[in-house]
Amino acid sequence: MKVCAILLCALVPGHPTECQRGPGAYELVEIEAINTAAGCKRVADDIRSGALPLPAGLRLVRRDMLPPREPKQSP
Hints:
Distance between the termini: 28 Å
Order of helices and strands: EEHE
Number of strands: 3
C-alpha cells in the first residue's frame, strides 16, 4: 500500500517562491489516511489554492504516492 507524501520547503526570507537549500530546508510529510492518487492530488490542489493553508514560510514542492517509511531503529 502507498500513502500520500507531500514535500514542503522552507522559503528564503523575502523571496516568496525560492526554497532554502541545505539540511532541514525540506520536509516530507506522509498522510497515511490518504492512500489514493486522487486523494493526494486533491490535498495538493487545496494547498495550492489556499483552501488548506500552510504555515508561513513553507511552500509545497511536490506530491507523490510512496510506500510508507519504515520506523527508524534505535541503536
